[in-house]
Amino acid sequence: MVADLRRCVGCQTCTVACKESNATPPGVQWRRVFDIEAGEYPDVRRVFVPTGCQHCDDPPCLEVCPSTATGKRADGIVTIDYELCIGCAYCIMACPYEARYKVDDERFAFGDDATPNERKRADPRMLGVVTKCTFCVDIVDAGLAQGLVPGRDMAATPACVQSCISGALRFGDLEDPRSGIAQLLAENQWFRMHEAEGTGPGFYYLWDKAPPL
Amino acid sequence: MSSAAAGETRSVPTYCYNCVAGPDLMTVEVTDGVATQVRPDHKATDIHPAHGRPCIKAYGLVQKTYNPHRVLTPMKRTNPRKGRDEDPGFVPISWDEALDIVAAKLNDIRARGLLDEQGLPRVAATFGHGGTPAFYMGTLPAFLSSWGPIDYSFGSGQGVKCTHSEHLYGEFWHRAFTVCADTVSTRYIVSFGANVEVTGGVCAVRRHADARLRGIKRVQVEPYLSPTAACSAEWVPIKPKTDAAFMLAMVHVLLHEVARERLDLAFLRDRTASPYLVGPDGWYLRDPDSGKPLLWDTRSHKAVPHDTPDAVPAIEGRFEIATAIAHGPDGEVYQHSNVTARTAFDVMVEAMRPNTPDWAAAICDVPAATIRRVALEYLDNACVGETIEIDGMTLPLRPVAVTLGKTVNNGWGAFECCWSRTVLATLVGALEVPGGTLGTAIRIHKPHDNRLLSVKPGQDGFMASTFNPTDREHWFAKPTGRNAHRTLIPIVGNSPWSQALGPTHLAWLFLRETPPDWPKPTAPEVWFAFRTNPAISFWETAQLSATMATMPFIVCFAYTFDETNHMADILLPDATDLESTQLTRIGGTKMVEQHWHHRGVALRQPAVAPQGEARDFSWISAELARRIGRLDAYTAALNRGTTTFPLQGEHYDFSLRPDQVHDVDTVWDAVCKAATAELTGGKEIKDLAWFKEHGWFVVPFEQLDWYLTPTMQRLGLRYELPYQERLVRTGIELGRRLHEQGIRWWDEQLTEYQGVPHWKDVPGHWVQSVVALGAKPEDFPLWAITTKSMPYTTGNNIGIPLMNEAASNLRGHGAVTINASTATQLGIRDGDWVEVSSPIGTTTGRAAVIQGCRPDTIVIQGQYAHWKTPIAKDFAYPSLNAIAPLSLVSLALTDATGSGADVVRVRVRKVDGPARKRA
């Protein structure tokens, strides 16, 4: 996943697209956008930073998971097997990105009762377990099964990226040098969040053009 | 992981038009008849500037559909007493009973006459933001058309919360009801509070993001570091309502501090009135025979009429004119002989001489060096002399623009801002050319869907403009609507939009109190309201609600209970966004910042069945027309094209029989066929079934048609700048008419009719308003302004929890935003409850303490303080509307265009929050 901070306007469209696509309950935001200020008046900068599970190379959440519910696929996507998760929440504590959530009881947008859409999307497997961004793995896998290319074909691309109105969020195969995001990383300067933690995040933030060689 | 619901899932193409920057194309996922999620319409990637992606508001429409607080059956009031503290006693009734009650009221009015004893329409109607309700009200416009005169002057914020002055002056000067940069080609934008990243819509957001990657520089000049400032190269924190001084100083720099040849002298000479000769009395000197304005021909060395072939006009200089005439107000003609004339350009140069950056710096609290640098960067980037080829035509490339935001663009000072912005464009030839300052929509002139075709030759070599008359014979001494738009505001004209443009606050004000020698207007006997909540969205909301409660019969198309329909007599539940049918135009150039390479139409269709007894607007409209015996006129209005396109054209005839009720699908099937036939010259005809499958239909739209200047050039017309002779004449005539009636309370507004603007103490108006309200200015030391966030801006979606959750990720949401040093001085910490007071009231909320705000300014975002709307009434968010005056004081805060601004002088103190109060 790539977030181009020069493009992001903090509109939160990705936040709600994720919530609808994944039917997460109120207060659970697998994708969200930080609104950050730095400096002192009048020399102030404000920046919008999309965040969520970083799908790390070496996920600290995986290391602490006692039930082996958290796993990592060959393509880099960090997953949670809800059948195995015991809801101990160690992973929530371990994640430096505050990307994980645990909801024990049903929550609905308008109070105690589910609306028809919430009833239709209700998934009891997601109660009492830890959840987080999956990079919309079901969409990705369904797309791959149809021969589509995630990141290039929207039908195989995470909902947040599909929805991003400024084009800040991009997705694809980092290891394919022809992919859009591989080219973006080659052409721009980027950083990863909490790089010093050594987690190897799979979420790259572009902030300027690469200097000329 | 998403739970894949069992059952049949289909994807329904439709659109979201919750804000004026729409419509946004989208799809709705429907499983077993239940809408589950909104998604982009990726099939539109190649034709939509934002790749078929809607903004955040669209994703709230699923919750909107299934909101358990919806009004789902018609209701009638049982408590005849109205007021905030009165329980309306709404009880459910059938559609038949509801429509019969409304029809009986209307039939009674029709029998007595559509106008009352004051000549005012007995029926009034208010629709919300930016005309967008029209894109949800199906065939109601045909019903309204079939009725006759309706008073649209009771606004819900129009004139004070839009970019009002830009609407009027923009359309006057360059057919630009809304104005934006040509973002795809520009290199440098100076944005005075234009919050395009929040309110510009998805097309603007995408275009600006692309531009940033391309290397554009945008300087954001505003008191508060908005998301747009966050996405800009530079933030310049300016004192509220001093933007005009900054811009006048930019004009000064270009006129007095750089070599003249750096300006686009050819553009000034040929496309503006710069060469027109102005006499010593301020009127254009005119040819005695033709009455045409004169200019000085450098070839023949004599004054000639402005349209003399082969003349090469002088832009600057003083010239001796042997004989000329001038046209004053009321048809007065003055004879001149042996008089010294200046060019209009010269008049501007002299008027701008005092407006140095040092002068402006003291007013704006912005360093003179910054103002000068911005002006010079603007000039440096203007690329005067460069060209670009667009659609096979060579045009100037002038990649600089100045854009204006709300509050900058309305109320006192807005005229000066609009003039300066447009003059800055003309000085470098950047008006209506690639890269420059462009208009997008027109609403005062016709046709509304093609601003190029609206350009017609008018007087003195300018475009024809439709002012309300100010001559003694034709002036409307007696208002035709309760806001007196034709009486007080010549430039607003009298198009279907004019009355609702403003001054709509005056309609509410005059119902409660009137200035001297102004009769109190009658209340409308029937008032319709849809997608609007003026009880929250206008000013001094407590008083306005009390005024609203005096209206005898109110019909609200109701989604949930709210603060306005709390006063209603009848509630009619309309089928909402995902439940109803309507075809609307897309593409071309549209409101805010939409420039497409296509134009066409899109269908909103019922993705799901209406909840409860909610009914499609087109069904409601036809039933109302039938019950008042206006079916013929209603159907005739449909056939004329009131919905979108005429149903009969050169290549087609899908007109409907006028003597019968047509069901919803029959009407829109005809509209779909007519629209596609019209778009293709009869070559392609798509019916409703086709649109239900495909969603939208487009044909190519040439980029050349984004720009007005080629049309002006073809017609040999000039932009009516820099000198405003027509406005001066209009203002004098209006003053005479008002004074003849003994009316003096509009005199300050008359001072705005100037040939060239001169700075007045704009912020002083608001300081003086404190005194007028009986308080001391020193007790209210801070400026309070407002701003928007994308989840809510103009969305009519306050009761949708998803929006509140997402908006809470943004700082300042539902809070009083205050500068950190100011907060420290006041003993306020982030999250503390604070009370904001103006001389007329208070509002409370939590403090959001930040650095990105001027120390003398606080910001209250959005329009909250709901007390009835479900979900929102529990927010406990503050509202500027609660503390902004709507009284004769606000009359003094109204400018000549009938516009006010969301600016209030306030004080702030820490208080106990609601929870502690309860404890």
Uncertain segments of chain A: none
**Uncertain runs of chain B with pLDDT below 50, 5 residues or more?**
1-5
* Assembly type: heterodimer
- Choose one word for the global shape of chain A: globular
Structural class of chain A: alpha+beta
Report the portion of residues of chain B in β strands.
Answer: 15-25%
CATH topology of chain A: Alpha-Beta Plaits
Strand order of the largest sheet of chain A: 8-1-10-9
Helix content of chain A: 10-25%
In order across it, which strands form the biggest sheet of chain B? Answer: 5-4-22-21-20-6
Overall mean pLDDT of chain A: 97
CATH domain class name of chain A: Alpha Beta
Query: What's the total number of strands of chain B?
Result: 33
**Share of helix among residues of chain B?**
25-40%
Task: Give a description of the structure.
Chain A has one domain (2-208): 2-Layer Sandwich (Alpha-Beta Plaits). In chain A, 23% of the residues lie in helices and 20% in strands. In chain A, strands 8-1-10-9 form a 4-stranded mixed sheet. The mean pLDDT of chain A is 97. With 213 residues, chain A is an alpha+beta fold. Chain A is built from 7 helices and 10 strands. In chain B, the strands form 10 sheets. Chain B has a 6-stranded mixed sheet with strand order 5-4-22-21-20-6, covered by helices on one side. A 6-stranded mixed barrel of chain B has the order 28-32-29-31-30-33. Chain B is α/β, with parallel strands linked by helices. In chain B, helix 8 runs parallel beside helix 13 (414-427). Among the domains of chain B are: 164-445 and 710-732, Dimethylsulfoxide Reductase, domain 2 (3-Layer(aba) Sandwich), CATH 3.40.228.10; 761-918, Barwin-like endoglucanases. The chains are: A alpha+beta (213), B alpha/beta (919). Chains A and B meet through helix 1, strand 2, strand 3, helix 4 and helix 5 of A and strand 3, helix 1, helix 6, helix 7 and helix 27 of B.
